[in-house]
Design the sequence.
């Protein structure tokens, strides 16, 4: 970053082998936030070879689990120490507000603490096979060399959901952050070294996924690929990996319904419901895989609910994330803003009713950044592309329903299945609806929260595999059954 080498391969920091670099843009004002080394495919191959060698020498996987857990705790301590500088870096890189970045760093710290504790308590299983001479054990072993690929919306958070369990399990790895937002991952990798991660256990490359992808995924030297990003990329990686029968876990975003029943009008929950729908879709300008982008609201309250939402959306203060007055920042890049603008045109041509937004802000102070106004489309239906496709920006679509069965049907009418919200004052109804929804996380009378101790992942095209929780560690482990006969006898099957 800015002259310092950004690739960590075999325990040594180096520049790209062909001297290539990439400008990293601050989306709040279009300035160059940093210049970062851009790896070549050969560099990526070196990184995989280094991780392979480090795994095969067996030192890291043989390190006692208590020592690995202690290392994870040291990482958490260093994250807490560097919280402010990491948060500022994340804000300059992604555009999100400093308040959001601080929450991200706290969450990253919690993930390391959680897997430190979990690694220390996860134990082998003894199986009773009915023969006292036989000791049958099911043990967990590290899966091997992992390639960890992250997107740009939660750069450090998402890579930490992968690095923490991979280290806890005893794996070695090659880390590739998004080429759009690599800065905190570089700083964090230096911090991992400081915490004492042995050379070659964590290798880091930077650059375009299309260029480095084959070297990282089309190889028999990798045992597990954990990917978070777009559906098309997830599919492409899965196909390539299938050639080598490499295990793949993919988290591919969502198109998440937020269902609001009319009974909230009489329960005193109205303002909180409006607030949660607003936050659920417009936080981080909607660039959240679990953003509640589809409001599915009961017809009898829809007009009033949407009017209140629009009034609040128009008051959202946009600005540079470093300014404490900003409530939301820009989109991550000009490219992403162009995509959002195309979706808005699509919505208009499909006949959706624009309630608010649908344009860049007119404020001259924001002219240099990739800002876009919070946008609400009413009178939407499921035939529209803006309802079916992940827009990954500040666009809320509104659909209306008349009874519970229709609400459930609409909520499940998506190819995705990452997250959903349900808002009702009727507990029994709430329970019925959350059980009927086919989504990986469902919030009842809340929205957006998660914990390191509970699994995260999707149904349908939102992906496969789970991160966080005990399953998030198991993804990085192979299971081995050891059958040990302490008093062997002939099998006695063949008589000759
Ligand atoms: O993702 P990509 P993009 C969705 C969102 C967004 C769309 C595309 O809808 O608009 O995906 O975003 C690396 N082999 N999500 O284009 O390309 C790439 O370098 C190996 C949802 O930014 O999938 C980056 O590190 N790696 C998502 C990572 O994959 C490859 C969050 C993701 O980039 C590669 C972000 C290849 N062939 C976007 N091609 C979520 N699930 O939360 C690219 N990469």
Sequence:
């Amino acid at each position: 970053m800015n002259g310092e080498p950004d690739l960590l391969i075999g325990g040594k920091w180096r520049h790209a082998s062909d001297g290539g670099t990439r400008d990293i843009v601050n989306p709040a004002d279009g300035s160059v936030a940093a210049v970062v080394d851009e790896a070549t495919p050969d560099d990526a191959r070196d990184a995989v070879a280094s991780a392979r060698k480090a795994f095969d020498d067996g030192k890291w996987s043989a390190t006692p689990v208590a020592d690995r857990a202690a290392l994870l705790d040291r990482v958490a301590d260093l994250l807490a120490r560097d919280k402010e500088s990491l948060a500022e870096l994340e804000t300059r890189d992604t555009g999100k507000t400093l308040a959001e970045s601080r929450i991200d760093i706290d969450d990253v710290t919690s993930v390391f603490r959680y897997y430190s504790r979990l690694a220390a308590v996860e134990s082998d299983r003894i199986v009773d096979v009915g023969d006292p001479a036989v000791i049958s054990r099911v043990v967990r072993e590290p899966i091997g060399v992992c390639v960890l690929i992250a997107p740009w919306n939660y750069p450090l958070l998402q890579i930490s959901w992968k690095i923490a369990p991979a280290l806890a399990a005893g794996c070695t790895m090659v880390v590739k952050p998004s080429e759009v937002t690599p800065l905190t991952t570089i700083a964090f990798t230096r911090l991992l070294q400081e915490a004492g991660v042995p050379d070659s256990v964590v290798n880091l490359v930077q650059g375009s996924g299309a260029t480095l992808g084959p070297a990282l995924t089309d190889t028999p030297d990798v045992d597990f690929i954990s990917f978070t990003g777009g559906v098309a990329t997830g599919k492409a990686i899965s196909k390539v990996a299938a050639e080598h029968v490499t295990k793949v876990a993919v988290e591919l975003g969502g198109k998440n319904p937020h269902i609001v029943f009319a009974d909230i009008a009489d329960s005193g929950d109205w303002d909180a419901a409006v607030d949660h729908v607003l936050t659920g879709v417009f936080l981080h300008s909607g660039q959240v895989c679990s953003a509640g982008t589809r409001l599915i609201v009961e017809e009898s309250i829809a007009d009033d609910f949407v009017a209140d939402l629009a009034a609040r959306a128009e008051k959202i203060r946009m600005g540079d994330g470093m300014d404490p007055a900003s409530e939301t920042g820009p989109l991550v890049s000009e490219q992403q803003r162009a995509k959002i603008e195309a979706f808005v045109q699509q919505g208009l041509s499909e006949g959706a009713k624009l309630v608010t937004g649908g344009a860049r802000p007119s404020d001259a102070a924001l002219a240099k950044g990739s800002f876009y106004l919070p946008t609400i489309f009413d009178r939407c239906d499921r035939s529209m592309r803006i309802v079916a496709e992940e827009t990954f920006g500040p666009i809320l679509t509104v659909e209306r329903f008349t009874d519970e069965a229709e609400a459930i049907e609409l909520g499940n009418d998506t190819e995705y299945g990452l997250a959903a919200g349900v808002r009702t004052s009727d507990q029994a109804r709430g329970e019925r609806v959350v059980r009927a929804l086919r989504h990986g996380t469902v919030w009842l009378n809340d929205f957006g929260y998660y914990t390191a101790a509970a699994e995260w992942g999707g149904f349908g095209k939102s992906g496969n595999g789970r991160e966080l929780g005990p399953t998030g560690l198991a993804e990085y482990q192979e299971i081995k059954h050891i059958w040990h006969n302490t008093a062997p006898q002939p099998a006695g099957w063949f008589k000759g």
User: Anything to note?
Assistant: Residues 98-121 form the longest helix (24 residues). The chain has a mean pLDDT of 97.
